[in-house]
Amino acid sequence: MVSENGYSAKNIQVLEGLEAVRKRPSMYIGDTGVRGLHHLIWEVVDNSIDEALAGYCKNIILTIEEDNSITVLDDGRGIPVDMHPKEHKSALEVVMTVLHAGGKFDKGSYKVSGGLHGVGVSCVNALSIEFEATVYRNGKIYNQKYSKGKPLGDVQEIGECGEKTGTQIHFKPDDSIFEQTTIYNFETICARLRELAYLNTGITLDIVDKRVLTDESQYLSKRFYSDGGLVEFVKYLDSGREKIIKEPIYFEKLDSDVPVQIALTYNSGYSENLISYVNNIHTIEGGTHVSGFRMALTKALKDYAEKSKLLEKAKVDIIGDDFREGLTAVISVKVSEPQFEGQTKTKLGNSDVAGRVSSVVSLKLKEYLEEHPVEARIIVDKVVLAAQARNAARKARELVQRKGALQVGGLPGKLADCTDKDPANCELFLVEGNSAGGTAKDARDRKYQAILPLRGKILNVEKAQEHRIYESEPIRNMFTALGVTMGTENDPKELNLSKLRYHKIIIMADADVDGSHIRTLILTFFYRYMKSLIENGYVYLALAPLYLAIRNSNFKYCWSEEDRENAINELAKDGKRDLVTIKRFKGLGEMDPEPLWDTTMDPMGRILQQVTMLDAMEADRIISLLMGEEVEPRRQFIEENAYYANLDV
């Protein structure tokens, strides 16, 4: 029977095998952009790390091939290749082609694992145009190839390997799925391998990038290995901050069914930097293990401070946030049956883990404070200072908001607003200086583009207490123009976006050293105090051209040295390169409105870079390193990365 609206049994699709993954890839890997592309690597590497957790793997080598395909080789036990009793095919093929299949469900094989959903490597297979598994096991080498999740033949025995064991996975992402890009980022992968090395002491992780040759004609490569584990990790994260206690605090409890490892330290900064992991999976949104840690940290420090009568001089109420200002901590727990929110594993839900972590922190931190009275007093003094600063910041916010400076009603005088009132259509350009601001106002489309000139360089919020930001006119103007306020029902420090007036906030600064500094200052402010703007994808960088190549009435804009060379070649096809004039743009204020519109503001011709939170942990470290108080780590970073700098000479 066919219903009147044409909806019948024939409309019901049954997706077989891995077709569901290809139909809805974002359900399994988060998205099909840059984050999802790199998530494919994490799934494969996590399988090798699980072998390491089980005690069978010491070395993992990841290779980015010349064609942007990926090869991951480990020296674990090798995936079983014998016949599966139920599926009547090789266990290797079952693992690679069946969702919710793998050794992670058998507690005799893996006591703890990150990939407990059993869909990881099969999803990688489904979303790859090329996929090849090679297994070294029982003295033999086995191989099977796939495309889009389907085997191209049976598992084959292709040679002998002696005593060598392990698994090699090679895959090339399907560009019909990953339409945005299939190009892997070396530094993004390095960041993940680095944290895995810190989390798993004694394991060597190598990365080789065959797309890049060094000056020594060797492939670009890095090795990650750690003996110090979480203590080294905390030192790395805090390398750009001024430490106030000499050595990180470390404690662990490994002889239980929920092993816990924690390292923490305090610095002179004003933000909390807490990184958490469950079975090596970075739980970006935290969870019960983080709740247990915070609760116990607050109680242990407060009990010690009250017992030692160190809070009497505070003269303000002290809350949990005060105990975590300037805190850098890494929490790593191992849970045999973790309950994650979704396959992307961003938040732990096991209620019992909070109590396990809390009891470890309470006991161990109490012991530390009793045994280290000097460090204990330094930490408590930091807590008191944080409470006083928080109270001053609250009063400053209330004063500013009472005056209406954070309300939409009184827009800053320098803002040239747009006529459209739909935030989804509107753009706000934050422009360096009045001169460039004036040109931008003349160049813009008044219907949907607003211009806010910023006078000089804004306050470096990395070095300033919170209450000082509300005393800064450029920062107050940004709050006012954007229409946002600080404070929600759940968190007084959270940004309230309910009245955000623009869904594109575009930082437009000169393509020189001063312009780079201004961009960094604004991004530091956004990251520390308006992070949700970045998380929601509202923040962009406008790329202004560096050069204008001219020959007679023909001209080309150039955004890089490569663009300049290509423009010269194109304008001098007759070989007369000396007839091509190169004009170097010194600043946006020097440009006339028409070229500024054509190159930097016209949606059809401009180049925008969206600011993302792809690696918030590394972003936090770099911002603190570049914008913080410590000079030596900043100098070392600049020296090590000078090769990548765009020097204006």
Can you describe this structure?
It is built from 19 helices and 24 strands. By secondary structure, it is of the alpha+beta class. It has 3 domains: 19-224, Heat Shock Protein 90 (2-Layer Sandwich); 230-392, 2-Layer Sandwich (Ribosomal Protein S5, domain 2), CATH 3.30.230; 404-525, Rossmann fold, CATH 3.40.50. The strands form 5 sheets. Strands 1, 2, 3, 4, 5, 6, 7, 8 and 9 form a 9-stranded mixed sheet that branches. A 5-stranded mixed sheet has the order 10-11-14-12-13, with helices on both faces. A 5-stranded mixed sheet has the order 16-15-19-20-24, sandwiched between helices. Helix 3 runs parallel beside helix 6, helix 8 (288-307) runs parallel beside helix 9 (351-371) and helix 11 packs across helix 17. It is globular and about 75 Å long. Residues 1-16, 102-110, 114-118 and 642-649 have low confidence and may be disordered.
Distance between the termini: 78 Å
Question: In the CATH scheme, what's the topology name of the largest domain?
Answer: Heat Shock Protein 90
How many distinct domains?
3
The main pleated sheet reads as: 9 strands, mixed
The CATH architecture category of the largest domain equals 2-Layer Sandwich
Instruction: Briefly note the structural class of the backbone.
Output: alpha+beta
CATH superfamily of the largest domain: Histidine kinase-like ATPase, C-terminal domain
Mean pLDDT, to the nearest integer, reads 84
Number of helices: 19
Our estimate of the beta-strand percent is 15-25%
CATH class of the largest domain: Alpha Beta
Radius of gyration: 28 Å
Shape: globular
Helix content: 25-40%
Number of strands: 24
Spans of at least 5 consecutive residues with low confidence: 1-16, 102-110, 114-118, 642-649
